[in-house]
Write a structure and sequence with these properties.
Layout: E1 16-21, H1 25-36, E2 41-45, H2 52-55, E3 59-60, H3 71-94, E4 105-110, H4 116-120, E5 129-132, H5 133-139, E6 147-153, E7 157-158, H6 161-175, E8 178-181, E9 185-191, E10 194-200, E11 203-205, E12 207-212, E13 227-237, E14 250-253, E15 256-261, E16 273-277, H7 291-304, E17 313-323, E18 330-333, E19 339-343, H8 349-365, H9 427-431, E20 435-437, E21 440-442, E22 446-449, H10 456-466, E23 470-474, H11 475-479, H12 488-491, E24 498-502, H13 509-525, E25 533-536, H14 549-561, E26 565-570, H15 574-582, E27 589-590, H16 604-613, E28 619-621, H17 627-635, E29 640-643, H18 645-648, H19 653-673
Parallel strand pairs: 1-2, 1-12, 2-8, 4-14, 12-19, 22-23, 22-29, 23-24, 25-26, 26-27, 28-29
Antiparallel strand pairs: 3-7, 4-6, 5-6, 9-10, 10-11, 13-16, 13-17, 14-15, 15-16, 18-19, 20-21
Helix pairs in contact: 1-6, 1-8, 3-6, 3-8, 10-19, 13-14, 15-16, 17-19
The structure holds flavin-adenine dinucleotide (FAD).
Flavin-adenine dinucleotide binds next to helix 1, strand 2, helix 2, strand 13 and strand 17.
Length: about 700
């Protein structure tokens, strides 16, 4: 067989056409779709019961979730429209119910949110209907008296995700999909951008094509930014005295949803349940329900629908949503020609199962790539920041955790490849891209200065040893021929080093603007005709040398208008950084700690936020005292460092310059490589997470 137009010459037993890693809703749905098209399919899954797909609430709620118009909304709507036919087909194949129920979703609004929600949903008016207090109580009697109205989404609905998973499993089995639960894939073995097998807990398995559908655990096998977002849930039983089912629609409240489960199959009248969810916690794979989590859910649920307080509790459980930084799934091709990705569906994976299965099967089996897939390609996380500057349609950039930027393509090293099969990938070659500031590219990510050296010779040697390509020069010190600055023009080779004039010594915006203009002339005199860079420093405070944020912003705005590439030195203030970016600065340069203090990275948390949100390079400036601190700043995801005092003041400045250069590079590479998550506990080899406690 030929897949993706490529013939594989594998001297091994090819067990199937397609091997799918992960047996949650994605793995099973894709397996069935491929099988129906004629492929032989194997599914390997570590633990069927740990799947998020079993823990979910099963809401099909693109509109109640207020997903804004975007490719994601289109994906969700297409998927929702597939649901009736998809579940009918599954029920036919499996003989089992799926619990699909197009019951609509009510989103009640409390007094305190009145006025906000109607406007917020203004553009959804075609698909949602506003109900006032009386009307909403007709749709759903028994709501809290705090509810003043709400939105009705008639096209949203739900599926009983546990019933759906049973049906998927049975349908896959009956079609002849080779389903293996209890098998862990430990590594994806690749050679020359092809997967040549997967190493599993029971030996090596091979196929012609592979699909990664391992949900929240995807990052264990590939360096893609998928992380677990824990959700705790519970359910109550509908008491027997209620002959009719009290809830007829999903209630989608603020931070709470209440999902009635109609009988599906084995569930008798006595087992009618109402599902209540869910927390959203960034606690890694920490298992178990917690009193705080359950208390929060119960409080919110009882407030919304008070009679729940009398219902017997049925079950508590938890699961791990596969979250990505932009909350969008990762779908489609990978750097390996025969590996397809279907993961990161975060909080909408049940909804997105039918469309994911159809698009992925089209891609693998028919080599047909729906244009919608382009929006969900893994490479969006590895593009150069300047190309990838638009915020996610779902989420403000401020809530994005930091992800590798600067252009790496994930090397796709398997986590435990067999030594014979492992192909070493040159990390530098495969994942790095140079630093680009205002359209100018630099290979070195370390910038240095010319101040504080004991001799001109030490300065020259240090700059050479640092390998830096940008050197900042205090315009005022050159003007006044301050010690160490005489003969600077001749001391360095300005054809190789880019001068970054700085406005050190300026206490006001006006002064800084004047000095910036002089700096531009100075660069011209050195032969750098096109050098419009300026490191903007406005520092009225002479004790701590902390910059004036207002003066800096004011000067930056004016200098940008005059055509300068402005690199402002700032305190590590994320809001200011964003404002400076908005006015057109070329970088931001937050301080690690006060200038020359050598105190190291005191502002790590805020610098992390700046990095997370920046669409321009972030250069950590000032305060770094040691190479380990330099590495730490780069590991945070900084694009570059500016280090002067720690080099110039060292006993052996040239040696320190070299050490700083190595540390900058090591920290950057470590950032690209992706550190392991910090865990509160040891990580057991057999996961206990996701099991259902009753
Ligand atoms: C509390 C909660 C509520 C939710 N509510 C909704 C909702 O209302 N509507 C909605 O649409 N979505 C909801 N979701 C999201 C949805 O459940 C997920 O997006 C979806 O289930 C992801 O499916 P999946 O197949 O990618 O991953 P999973 O269902 O997690 O399956 C992944 C499988 O891969 C296996 N695996 C992992 N690593 C390996 C390995 N190395 N080798 C072999 N197998 C491996 C795991 O054991 C697991 O069985 C909710 C999720 C949670 C946690």
């Amino acid at each position: 067989m030929e897949l993706d137009g490529i013939k594989y010459k594998l001297a091994m037993n090819v067990s199937s056409d397609v091997l799918i890693i992960g047996g949650g809703v994605m793995g099973l749905a894709i397996a069935i779709e491929l099988k129906l098209r004629g492929a032989s399919v194997t599914v390997l899954s570590r633990d069927f019961h740990a799947a998020a797909s079993l823990a979910a609430a099963g809401m099909l709620a693109p509109q109640a979730e207020e997903i804004p118009p975007s490719p994601m909304l289109e994906l969700c709507l297409r998927s929702r429209s597939l649901y009736p036919e998809w579940t009918r087909k599954l029920e036919e194949l499996s003989g089992e119910p799926t619990g699909y129920w197009p019951c609509g979703i009510l989103a009640p609004v409390y007094e305190e949110a009145r006025g906000k929600r109607p406007e917020a949903r203004g553009n959804q008016e075609e698909v949602a209907q506003w109900l006032d207090r009386d009307a909403i109580n007709l749709y759903q009697p028994g709501l809290s008296s705090d509810v003043v109205g709400g939105w009705w989404y008639p096209e949203d609905g739900q599926v009983d995700n546990r019933a759906l998973l049973r049906a998927l499993w049975t349908a896959a089995e009956s079609l002849g999909v080779d389903l293996r639960d209890g098998v862990t894939v430990e590594g994806i073995v690749q050679q020359q951008r092809q997967v040549i097998g997967v190493q599993t807990s029971v030996g090596v398995s091979r196929a012609e094509h592979y699909v990664l559908a391992t949900g929240a655990w995807s990052n264990e096998l590939l360096p893609i930014p998928v992380s677990p977002r824990k959700g705790q849930m519970l359910s109550v039983r509908v008491p027997n005295f209620n002959n009719s089912f009290p809830l007829q629609r999903v209630l989608f409240g603020s931070d709470i949803y209440i999902v009635p489960r109609r009988d599906s199959g084995s569930e008798t009248l006595r087992e009618r349940r109402i599902v209540i969810g869910a927390t959203s916690e960034e606690v890694g794979f920490t298992p178990h329900n917690t009193p705080a989590g359950i208390q929060a859910l119960l409080q919110r649920a009882i407030r919304l629908y008070p009679q729940l307080q009398h219902y017997p509790i049925h079950e508590f459980w938890w699961g791990f949503r596969p979250a990505t930084p932009d909350e969008l799934p990762i779908l489609g091709s990978s750097p390996c020609k025969n590996l397809t990705l279907a993961t990161g569906h975060y909080r909408n994976g049940i909804l997105l199962a039918p469309i994911t299965a159809a698009l992925i099967a089209d891609l693998i089996w028919e080599q047909k790539s729906d244009s919608l897939l382009d929006h969900f390609h893994y490479s969006r996380f590895y593009r150069n920041k300047s190309q990838n500057n638009s915020p996610s349609p779902l989420l403000p950039r401020s809530s994005l955790p930091s992800i590798p930027k600067g252009g790496p393509e994930p090397p796709l090293l398997s986590s435990h490849p067999s030594p014979k099969m492992q192909t070493l990938v040159s990390l530098e070659q495969s994942i790095d891209r140079p630093l680009t500031i205002a359209g100018k590219t630099f290979q070195s990510r370390l910038m240095t200065g010319t101040g504080k050296y004991r001799t001109m010779e030490e300065m020259q040697q240090s700059i050479t040893a640092s390998g830096c390509q940008i050197v900042t020069v205090a315009v005022r010190r050159v003007q006044t021929n301050a010690p160490g600055h005489e003969g600077l023009a001749e001391a360095l080779d300005w054809t190789k080093i880019w001068m970054l004039p700085n406005t050190a010594g300026c206490q006001t915006a006006d002064e800084a603007i004047r000095v910036a203009r002089l700096g531009r002339e100075m660069a011209k005199l050195l032969g750098q005709e096109d050098n419009n860079f300026v490191k903007l420093e406005v520092i009225p405070d002479l004790k701590y040398l902390l910059p004036d944020p207002i003066g800096t912003l004011e000067a930056a705005e004016k200098l940008v208008k005059e055509g300068f590439a402005v690199l402002p030195y700032i305190n590590a203030d994320p809001i200011l950084a964003k404002r400076l970016e908005d006015v057109g600065c070329a970088t931001v340069m937050p301080l690690a700690s006060p200038i020359g203090s050598g105190q190291g990275l005191k502002n790590a948390a805020n610098i992390g936020i700046i990095i997370e949100n920046a669409g321009i390079p972030v250069v950590v400036d000032a305060g770094i005292g040691t190479p380990s601190e330099a590495a730490q700043a780069m590991e945070l995801g900084a694009d570059a460092l500016l280090i002067n005092s720690a080099i110039a003041g060292a006993k052996n400045p040239a040696a320190m310059a070299r050490a700083m250069s190595l540390a900058t590079e090591a920290g950057h590479l470590a950032y690209l490589a992706g550190r392991i998550p910090v865990k509160a506990y040891a990580s057991a080899s057999s996961p206990l997470s996701g099991t259902i406690s009753s």
